Every structure is written in structure tokens, then in C-alpha cells.
Amino acid sequence: MRGARVLAFAGAAAFIVAASVLGLAAPAEAHNYLVSSTPKAGQTLTTLPKAFEITTSGPLLNLSGGRGFALEIRDAAGRFYGDGCVKVSGSTISETAAVGPAGKYTIIWQVVSTDGHTVSAELPFTWAPTDASSTPSPGAKTPPDCNGTAGGQAPAEPGAAPAKPADANLSDVLWIGGSILGTGIAVVVTLLVLGRRKRTTG
Ligand SMILES: [Cu+2]
After folding, report:
1. Nearest 5°: phi and psi at 180?
2. Do residue 23 and residue 37 come from a single domain?
3. Is residue 58 located within the same domain as residue 116?
4. 16 and 116, same structural domain?
5. Is the same domain home to 71 and 118?
6. Do 148 and 185 sit in the same domain of this protein?
7. Cα-Cα-Cα-Cα dihedral sign, residues 60, 62, 148, 96
8. What is the mean predicted confidence (pLDDT) over 59-84?
9. Does residue 193 register a pLDDT over 50?
10. Are 158 and 108 in contact (CB under 8 A)?
């Protein structure tokens, strides 16, 4: 009788652990991913659009005026273009388009998923203007900071590799690992308390 109760309790504890792990693993699947963009990855632009845009799979978490969001425009030499003023609207971030001379460019973007984790990636494109009268922007050596305002936080220092989505996955793993440990401790403490109660009352 007593053995059966312990077995039933252990089964329930295992179920709670499994359920909490699965429940916490689910948000990891909810990281926003790229759905569409202007320009498209690998596209050759011959005229400049009004804005560069990154549209992701779902709503973005914008709790502190654009902090954690970035859209950096860089040329092959590593110079930065644009004002760094990132607009966050629904599932899209955008920034006024700006480029320098014709050549290869990379947009490095970062957003905050609704679970609070950041996701970032690179989007290469080519600038080949057909209108020779367009004046290229001179660009800058350091990332633009939108005139010192909070928005447009740079995802990486110049020359450093941009943050990869793997960082977010690692924090998910740590989060899940921590919750398993916490649940395990709670189960052991509960078993100890039950065991002691049995001994004192029975
Ligand atoms: Cu996450």
C-alpha cells in the first residue's frame, strides 16, 4: 500500500517535470524569423527604396522604445550608413534607406521576440544605381545611434562578428536546465517532507 503510494507520487512528480520542460521548450519555437524584407536577400537594387524593412513572423516585443532592435547598413569596407533610427511597428522594423557608392552591402538586423529573446541575422544586397546623378552618402566609421536616442542600439562592435541566433538558443537551454533543476529540488523536498510526516504520524 505504502509502496504503491510512493510509486504514484513519483509518477506524478515525473509528469510535472516533463510538463514543465515541454511547456518551457515551446517558447523557443516561437522566436521570430524573417518573412520578407526590402531589399530581399541577395537582391541588386538599382534605385533606393524609401526605407529598408525587415518583416518577421510575428509581433515584436518593444517595451523600451526600440532597445534591442537594430538595423545596420554596412558596405564591404565596414562603413556604416543611415541614421540608426529604427522604427518598430507590429512585426516589422524599418529605417530610412541610405547607401554609399555602388557595391556590396550587408544589413545586420536584430529584433526582440515576444518571449524576450533577441534574434539577429545578416542580409546581403548589392547597390548598383542606374541614376548617375544620385549622390552617395559618405557613411561613417562608427554605428549610427539615431542622434544619441535609445533606439538603434548596435548589435555588434565594428569588426566583431554579429550575434547569431545560437545565442538565443543557448539562453533557452540554460533556462530549461535551470527549471529542471528547480523542479527536481522541489520534488525531492516534497518527498522528504512526506517521508518525515509518515514516520512521525505513523
Ligand atoms: Cu526564446
Report:
1. -65, -45
2. no
3. yes
4. no
5. yes
6. no
7. positive
8. 94
9. yes
10. no
**What is the whole-number distance in angstroms between the Cα of residue 91 and the centre of ligand 1?**
16
Domain that holds residue 102: 32-163
55/132 same-domain check: yes
Q: What is the pTM of this model?
A: 0.62
- Interatomic CA distance for residues 140 and 116, integer angstroms: 31
**CA-to-CA dists, residue 77 to 101, 104, 140, 192, angstroms:** 11, 9, 11, 64
Q: How far is the CA of 34 from the centre of ligand 1 (A)?
A: 15
What is the 149 CA–ligand 1 centroid distance (Å)? 27
Taking the centre of ligand 1 as the mean of its atom positions, its distance from the CA of residue 176, in whole angstroms, is 10
Q: What's the domain count of the chain?
A: 2
Q: How far is the CA of 115 from the centre of ligand 1 (A)?
A: 5
DSSP-derived letter for residue 57 is S
pLDDT digits (tens, 9 = 90+) for 92-134: 999 999 999 999 999 999 999 988 999 999 999 999 999 876 7
